[in-house]
Amino acid sequence: MTSISFIFLSLLLLRLITVTVESQPYTKNLTKNGVTLSPSGPYSYMASPTGEFAFGFLPLAADSSLFLLAIWFNKTSSTQPIIWFAKNSSDAAGPVLSPAGSKLRLTDTGELILASPTSQTIWNPGTRGATHVALVDHGDLLIYDDTELPLWQSFDFHTDTIVPGQSLGKVKFLQSKLTDSDFSPGRFKLEANKNGYLAFFLVVEPPDPTNEFYWSSNNKTGRHLVFNLSGLLYYELENNSSPFYISDYPFERYHQHATLDPDGVFRVYIYDKYLSDKGSWSVVRELPENACGTQVDVGSGMCGFNAYCIQSSNLEPPRLSCMCPQEYTFIDANRPYLGCRPNFALQNCSVDESTDFKFVEMKNTDWFGAGDYMHFVTSDESGCRTSCLIDCFCLVVIYRASNCWKKKLPLSNGRQGTYVGGKALVKVRISSGTSITNSSVGSFTNKNQSNLVIAGAIMLGISLLILISISIASLYLRRRKRDLESEQVDLSPMGMNMKNFSYKDLHDATKGFTEEVGRGSFGIVYKGILKLANHSVVIAVKKLDRLLKDGDREFANEVQSIGQIHHKNLVRLFGFCREGPHRILVYEYMSNGSLTNFISEATKLGWNRRAQIAIGVAQGLYYLHEGCCSQIIHCDIKPQNILLDDNLVPRISDFGLAKLIGVDQTRATTYNIRGTIGYFAPEWFKNTGITPKMDVYSFGVMLFEIVCCRSNIMQVDEEEIVLRYWAYDCFREGRINLLIQGDKEAEADIEGVERFLKVAIWCIQENPVIRPTMHKVTQMLEGAATIAPPPDPSIYISK
């Protein structure tokens, strides 16, 4: 097992502590001199009235002789996440840990005291005169006096998690744990800062009041992060502005919690209550969206100095991991956030050691920020390499699009992913020997030095020839093996990799392509069940009717490229078939079908859910346009191509078909137009080039449908009316209420509805130049950017 795999597996196993308590729960309130909770007693925990939550002692994973005093979900089968744990004296202190013989009781003076086996006080929340302690069904632990007023409640003392019914004000913060199994204060904080922004900070020692955040809500200034008992999580903004919505899942249907995880990502988790013991926790929102892509101007960034951040697509939920470049190791393997150090002696500036170093190539890797000291443009990569080799200060060079950046240690804001592009060339010593010092140089004559350089060059040349030969042979064998048989890969939910399926595999999986679940511009989609060794996987199989003109190799290359693109709002491509005349794509199956099923007047979702779906689609398109290493223009955005997963999270489908089918990227004609009438941008018909603004237009049309829950073409009094034109007229005349009649949730958020309508109108402008980018669209929908009054979309304003 590789070190990366080991780290990922460890994170997965440690993600949540599984509660295993042998004693029976105490189901009543704690009273004066009543029942005592103890790790080794008959009652180690008490349950809320319906058993939803539990409060008591949990064995510590790192040391089973110690116990954590905590509150956790009590009715979720696979894992039971901890939502609160007792801390020592202050919010920034470590967890309260108790030995086996400890006891928690309410004394006759009304104090809740946790005492050690030797009767020493371990924890005391500081209340007196309490009559009883209760755990309520939304997870709050309350200490009451005789007037039934709470003297203390756990919801006021935040750890790393909030749940429905809880809020986070300006004077409070969430702080991550150090690791999933270590409850010590971690490296990350989430709080409303002094400017009113919801912001994520790196915790530094000593504390720095000017410490910069690595993500914030930008111009959204507010008061509270609220998780209400309806299941809506949002940041309440000032001046009665529409809130910054984060997630919205009905409380009566889902267990849910939002946690600042040890990797610095704030994740919203849900668990379907109706699935009982068959359910599992799923991530439905992450802030920041791409944490590895964040950066700070001062400091190391998400990972330590010289390390780089990666986000695995093979784990569910996805997690960030900090890695060291080749020939570098962690300063402390138990604390990887401290960064990495080189395993070799650095280049000596007093002598020419350029032949003693080589480069380790790392694609799609960069360190942004501190470390850059030179930037120049070169026509080829070799110039970039040479410049760094002869420069004793240069440790890393970045080459991207003919640009060369030279960097010195320490490196910060390291990241790796397809969104980065280019490559990092890390300079390392060829041998593990120490650097030649000035004194050792003095023992050599110039002739000896020349002979040594010549011998080294010869050895380097031979080594390169051997490596090239091995690489060529390896490449040939891999290609030969791939041509002879399909790749054998793990298709478990924890590791969906690309696979070259045989036609028989897919014929059997779909029972002869009999269960049709969709039909689009380029083929029919069938539902299938792929039977593996220990389980089965439900898949969606799309048979393509049209192919790239340039043939088989291009098809395979494009499929492999698209298969590397991962985003929570894109449908995952598992594999393909290119056998004989068959060209088939295999996707993950979306159980809730398309968005079309949920935006009609009869079957519409609630307004808050529809708004989150619209934002999710916008984020997916923004990623396709600007986040991929190679830009992808969808060319057919419509509700039928927006699929919804089990948790109603939107996933854009068919996002790579524009590349696979070979749409002309310079001229658009009626022959090669891809798209659907009603969603076409006007420039489709003007023989202009295909641009991302065409997707923006189609998104705007669909956004009207999401807001109004009506089809793009409506039937009114036996006449067909175009929704977007009618909606603009209503907006212009101040009659927005006509667009959402009967939608009480939308009527209660009329400012939010108006904001979405403004965005939609900007998106469908006749002139593509004045349409916003999808990045800007996302910001406007989320309330992070102001929206100017939109002009009449039918008026062509040249710029």
TrEMBL record:
Q: Where is the Bulb-type lectin domain?
A: 28-156
Source domain of life: Eukaryota
EC code(s) of this entry: 2.7.11.1
**Would the keyword Amino-acid biosynthesis turn up in this protein's UniProt record?**
no
> Per the record, what are the reactions this protein catalyses?
L-threonyl-[protein] + ATP = O-phospho-L-threonyl-[protein] + ADP + H(+); L-seryl-[protein] + ATP = O-phospho-L-seryl-[protein] + ADP + H(+)
Q: Where in the cell is it found?
A: Membrane
GO terms of biological process kind: response to other organism
Protein kinase domain: residues covered: 511-795
Family under the similarity heading: Belongs to the protein kinase superfamily. Ser/Thr protein kinase family.
Report what the protein is called: Receptor-like serine/threonine-protein kinase
Annotated source species: Rhynchospora pubera
- Organism placement in taxonomy: Eukaryota, Viridiplantae, Streptophyta, Embryophyta, Tracheophyta
